[in-house]
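Hi R.,

Here's the chain you asked about this morning:
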Amino acid sequence: YFCMSKEYFIELCQTIEKNDGCNKFKREEYLLELSTDKTNDSGSKIMNDAHPKSSGGFISGEVKVAITLRVLAGGSYMDLSLLYKTSFSYSYKIFHFVISN
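And the predicted structure, written out as tokens:
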């Protein structure tokens, strides 16, 4: 879908995570770790550190990068919202979040 090999996509995501940190990028594995019953130092659950999507789930950094690349390649927000199961407006917000950060 991206005219980019899987290896280059992974490398791009790793570079972004390295520059921004795992707390900001939130790769899939990071979100899985947060979704367990782990707590922070104050004893509260740390799942609220993740970015919720409009349907109540969570969107990983890899998916945010994928949505952004598709929009840059001419993809429609409406098609992407169906493909990645987000709202139309949230796909738009994701694109602008990734571009600005």
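Helices lie at 6-20, 22-25, 28-34, 61-72, 77-83, 88-100.

Let me know if you need anything else.
M.
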